[in-house]
Amino acid sequence: MGKPARPLQPLTLTAEDINSNLAYAEQQLLKTENRLEENVHPRFTPTDFQGGQWLTIDTKDWRAGFFNGSEWMMFEVFGDNANGWRQKAEARTRAFSAEMSRPQTHDIGFKALNTYAQALRLTGLEEFKPKIFEAANTLGNRFMPEHGVTKSWEDANGELRVIIDNMMNLEIFFLAADLTTNAEDRDRWLKMAVTHAVTSEKNHIRDSSDPNIDGSTCHVFFYNRGVCKTHQGIADSSTWTRGQAWAMYGYAMAYRYTKKWPQYAKEAELFLATAQRTSDLYLRRLAEPRNGDWIPLHDFDAEEGAPKDTSAAALAAAALIELSTIDKVESDKRGRYKVAAESMLATLSRPSGDKPYRTTASPEDVAQESILLRATTSFATAGGGKKDIERGLSYADYYFLEALLRFQDVYGGKPRAPGFVKAAKTAAGVDVTWSETRGAATYTVKRAASAAGPFETIGTTTEPKFTDTKAPAGQVLHYVVTATNHAQAESVASLVASPAAMASAP
Ligand code: GLY
């Protein structure tokens, strides 16, 4: 008989926890930034069961962008402080220039999203936009219409494999579709993204009357053979926890973008349902005593005492926060998702015991660079093998920071400013659009005759779009948008957007 199930106790994540983790992150990222040239990036720490100084990779590696993504978050949080995050992050982003069009695996999505997409969101510089389109086309070249998916890899015999991880890379299609003014490109990118997500739901998400299996994921689908196997989990029939978390995050993200397009309303519903099914399975399995706390074993079917994976926990927390804000999710469930995400982040945030999940290095201790500990690349009996076990991992740190910021957006402090604000002149006036801010209850649109302000409020809206029907004629106008959350906290203003050719406005 196994141990009886004992519910995991909810933990609280305070504003102080978030702030002290962000300050600690800044300290740790600075050590790495000071040590590594801008075309050399963190991979994982060198020894199993330990932190340390990052082993490194060049821009071609799939993990290369995560450190740059973390730097952009530092710029977002701390602005242009004495550490000069914008300049550092921008220089590192530019090192990825050739990478956006280099033929490579599905991981081009991770790289572009962490580098040029963040650069555009946080600086508004138009020169970054074509890089996002290049990356979408690089991923698009991997789309296999006969199978309805972007391929991960193929071996020397032409055997095509797709991993559940690919769900994450679809965001570059969705983002490019939102940003382009070319309808043909938009429709093509959207179609590939939606089709891949629908196909993956069929081939990777298990259906079963057993609640320990229903909504779980299998890792690698072999399209030539029609079978699904594992690469990094312990068995073809097991549930590798990071794969499960890629699915949770990937389907929540796919819902966020797809729901905007009426022609894909049915698919948007499927994506939201799938994000919930995969999340519900994750939480049911996490409650099994073998995990011991809010951080999962590397595989939900592993034996008690097997390695943990903090990267899966950070990803799952980020996904659950997103789902906890969606009105269409039943309110009890939203509450459970919030409690679970908060408890996961609190567990990761507070180093304690002899096997802590987070480092506690001093600023002088340059030999300790990662933020989190105990992230596992692979602990498989075959396939990916046993490698890089319970170490610091660049994407564990990235998703930990992202989840902390998502939690702050919705449940503490101020939400982040809306990103990707665009203003375009139309017959009806000026259309102002932006990307959603998680946790925003309303958005306030403000207009000024000078980019330096003062900005005057011209309307509030719950949707990420607004038409200024009273734009004065013959003037160059400028717009900013703020987000206000349910606690009435208003973000700082977005970057300024100015429609081209306003001088000829109606
Ligand atoms: N996408 C590779 C991994 O999750 O390890």
Task: Explain how this protein is built.
There is one protein chain. By secondary structure, the protein is of the alpha+beta class. 39% of the residues lie in helices and 12% in strands. The chain is built from 13 helices and 16 strands. The strands form 6 sheets. The protein has a 4-stranded antiparallel sheet with strand order 5-6-7-8, with no helix packed on it. A hairpin with a 4-residue loop joins strand 7 (220-222) and strand 8. Helix 1 packs antiparallel against helix 13. The longest helix has 22 residues, at 183-204. It is globular and about 70 Å long. Residues 501-506 have low confidence and may be disordered. Glycine is lined by residues 165, 232, 242, 377.
